[in-house]
Design goal:
Layout (H helix, E strand, L loop, with lengths): L5 E6 L3 H12 L1 H8 L3 E7 L15 E3 L3 H4 L6 E4 L7 H10 L3 E4 L2 H18 L3 E2 L10 H8 L5 E7 L2 H13 L3 H10 L8 H4 L2 H15 L9 E2 L7 H10 L1 E12 L2 E12 L11 E8 L3 E8 L3 H21 L25 E11 L4 H11 L4 E6 L7 E8 L2 E2 H11 L10 E5 L5
Parallel strand pairs: 1-2, 1-4, 2-3, 4-5, 5-6, 8-10, 10-17
Antiparallel strand pairs: 7-9, 7-11, 9-10, 11-12, 13-15, 13-16, 13-17, 14-15
Helix pairs in contact: 1-12, 4-5, 5-10, 7-8, 13-14
The structure holds NADPH dihydro-nicotinamide-adenine-dinucleotide phosphate and L-homoserine (HSE).
NADPH dihydro-nicotinamide-adenine-dinucleotide phosphate binds next to helix 1.
C-alpha cells in the first residue's frame, strides 16, 4: 500500500529542535503540497519536557525517553538535535539498526565519526541527511552535492561560524568587547554548548571537514585540518586592518592544489571590498569555485533556530520524496559513489600573504634587522605601518608581505621573536590579497 504520511520524531528540543518543530507544524501545508504527503511530527524527546517552548504542539507527544522515538515502528525519520558525541552517535546507530532514516545538524559528530555513520546508514539501506550541519540555513551542501555536481571544485572559501562573525562584526563596527559580545551570541542561541568550539575555530573546522568530504569525495581526518580561532584577535589588529583597507574574518578554506587538498581555518584579512568581507553579524557566506561554473556565492543566516530548522526540514522533505518514490539511496550519502583518499597538504607548504605585527623598540637599525631576517627567508614586504613614537619603549610595527611560503614565515618569526629589540611574539594573520 502506498505510504500516506512521513512520520518523524525529534530528539533534542533546544534551539534547533524548537525551530524544526515550529516549521514542521506551522508550514505543514506548504510541506505537504511540495511532498504530496503530510510530514507528521509524532514525538519530541528532551530531558526537560516541562519547559514552555512557545509552540502550540497539538497532538505531538513529549517524552523524556529517546528510546520511545528510536523504537517507535511508525517513525520513519529520526531527527537528532541533542548535539555532542555521546549519546548522539549511539542514538543514530540505533535508529539505523531500526531501519529509520536520520537527519542531524551535528557537525562535531560528523567530522569525527562521519565515516562510521555513513557506512552504517548505507549498510542499513537508510539515509543520513545533514544539510543543517554546515552554514545554518544556507543550502550549501545541496549546492555542492547536486547543483554543482558537474564541476571539479577548485576551492571553497567561507565564513561558516555565525558566532565568530557576530563577535568580529561588533568588535569592528561598534568597538565592542570580545567577551561581552560572545555572551550575547550565546543568549541568542548561536553558540555551541561549549563556546570554545566556536571561538577557537573548531566548529568551523568540523564544518570544513564535511564540506571537503562532499566537495572532493575524500574522507577527511579532522585532525589534519589546520585550526586557529579568533580568541587572540585584538582591537589593535582590527584597527590596523581598517587603516590598511581590510577586514578580519574567520575563514574556512578548502582547495585543490597539485592533487592535494588544502583544508584550513584561521582568521583572515580580506580587502574590505571583497563580497565576503561585507558579510556581517550572524550571517555566513561561502564562495565556491568550480571549473565549469566559475565563481558562485552563497549567503544567509548561519545559526539560530529557524534558519537551521529550515535546513533540517529540507532534509526531511528530501528523504520523504525518496521514501514515497521508493528510491532511497539514489543520492549517495557522501555525494560520491567512487571515493578516493586525497592527501591533506601540510600547513607548512601553503602560500599566502601575511600581516605581521611586531612589537619592537623604535630606534635606528631595528627595522633593518627585522627586514633582514625576512629577506633571508624569501619574504618580501609590500607595505609597512607604524603608529606613534615612544623612545625606549616597544611600539607596534606592521608589515604586509607579498606571497610567501608558510614554512619560511614560521622560520623567520622564530628568529625575529628572539631579537633583543623585539618584545613578545609577533602577531600573524594570513591575508587574501586582492592582487592575486
Ligand atoms: P541546545 O543545547 O539548544 O539543544 C539540545 C537539546 O537536547 C537540549 O534541550 C538538551 O537538554 C537536549 N538533550 C540533551 N541530551 C538529550 C537526550 N539524551 N535526550 C533528549 N534530549 C537531550 O542545542 P542546539 O539546538 O543549539 O544544537 C543542537 C545541534 O544542532 C548541535 O549539534 C549543534 O551543533 C547543531 N547546530 C546548532 C545551531 C544553532 O544555531 N544553535 C546551528 C547549526 C547546527 P538540556 O538542555 O537539558 O541538556
Ligand atoms: N555555533 C554555530 C555557529 C552554530 O555559531 O555558527 C551553527 O552551526
Amino acid at each position: 500500500m502506498a505510504k500516506k504520511a512521513i512520520n518523524v520524531g525529534i530528539i533534542g528540543f533546544g534551539t534547533v529542535g524548537t525551530g524544526t518543530a515550529r516549521i514542521l507544524i506551522e508550514n505543514a501545508d506548504i510541506i505537504q503540497r511540495r511532498l504530496g504527503a503530510p510530514v507528521v511530527l509524532k514525538k519530541i524527546s528532551d530531558l526537560d519536557v516541562k519547559r514552555d517552548r512557545g509552540i502550540a504542539l497539538g497532538n505531538v507527544q513529549l517524552t523524556t525517553s529517546a528510546q520511545e522515538i528510536l523504537t517507535d515502528p511508525d517513525i520513519d525519520v529520526v531527527i537528532e538535535l541533542i548535539g555532542g558525541y555521546k549519546p548522539a552517535k549511539e542514538f543514530i546507530l540505533e535508529a539505523f539498526r531500526n531501519k529509520k532514516h536520520v537527519v542531524t545538524a551535528n557537525k562535531a559528530l560528523l567530522a569525527v565519526h562521519g565515516e562510521e555513520l555513513y557506512a552504517a546508514a548505507e549498510k542499513a539501506g537508510v539515509t543520513l541527511g545533514y544539510e543543517a550541519s554546515v552554514a545554518g540555513g544556507i543550502p550549501i551542501l545541496a549546492a555542492v552535492r547536486s547543483g554543482l555536481a558537474a564541476n571539479n571544485i577548485e576551492s571553497i572559501y567561507g565564513i561558516v561560524n555565525g558566532t565568530c562573525n557576530y563577535i568580529l562584526t561588533l568588535m569592528t563596527n561598534a568597538g565592542r568587547k570580545f567577551d561581552e559580545v560572545l555572551k550575547e551570541a550565546q543568549a541568542m542561541g548561536y553558540a555551541e554548548a561549549d563556546p570554545t568550539f566556536d571561538i577557537e575555530g573548531i566548529d568551523s573546522a568540523h564544518k570544513l571537514a564535511v564540506l571537503t568530504m562532499l566537495a572532493y569525495g575524500t574522507p577527511v581526518k579532522f585532525d589534519d585540518i589546520y585550526t586557529e580561532g579568533i580568541s587572540k584577535i585584538t582591537p589593535l589588529d582590527i584597527d590596523f586592518a581598517k587603516d590598511l583597507g581590510y577586514k578580519i574574518k574567520l575563514l574556512a578554506i578548502t582547495k585543490k592544489v597539485n592533487g592535494e587538498i588544502e583544508a584550513r581555518v584561521h582568521p583572515t584579512m580580506l580587502p574590505e571590498t571583497y563580497p565576503i568581507a561585507t558579510v556581517d553579524g550572524v550571517f555566513n557566506a561561502l564562495a565556491v569555485v568550480g571549473d565549469a561554473v566559475g565563481s558562485t556565492m552563497f549567503y544567509g543566516r548561519g545559526a539560530g533556530d529557524m534558519p537551521t530548522g529550515s535546513a533540517v526540514v529540507s532534509d526531511v522533505i528530501s528523504i520523504g520524496r525518496d521514501i514515497l518514490a521508493g528510491s532511497v539511496g539514489r543520492s549517495p550519502i557522501t555525494a560520491f559513489r567512487d571515493r578516493k583518499v586525497l592527501k591533506i597538504r601540510k600547513m607548512d607548504d601553503i602560500t599566502s600573504c601575511y600581516y605581521l605585527r611586531f612589537s619592537a623598540l623604535d630606534k635606528p637599525g631595528v627595522l633593518s634587522r627585522i627586514t633582514g631576517v625576512l629577506g633571508k627567508n624569501n619574504i618580501s614586504i609590500s607595505s609597512m605601518l607604524q603608529k606613534g613614537r615612544k623612545v625606549d619603549e616597544a611600539v607596534p610595527i606592521v608589515m604586509m608581505t607579498h606571497e610567501a611560503v608558510e614554512r619560511d614565515v614560521r622560520k623567520a618569526l622564530e628568529e625575529i621573536n628572539k631579537l633583543d629589540c623585539v618584545s613578545g611574539a609577533t602577531v600573524v594573520i594570513r591575508v587574501e590579497d586582492g592582487s592575486k
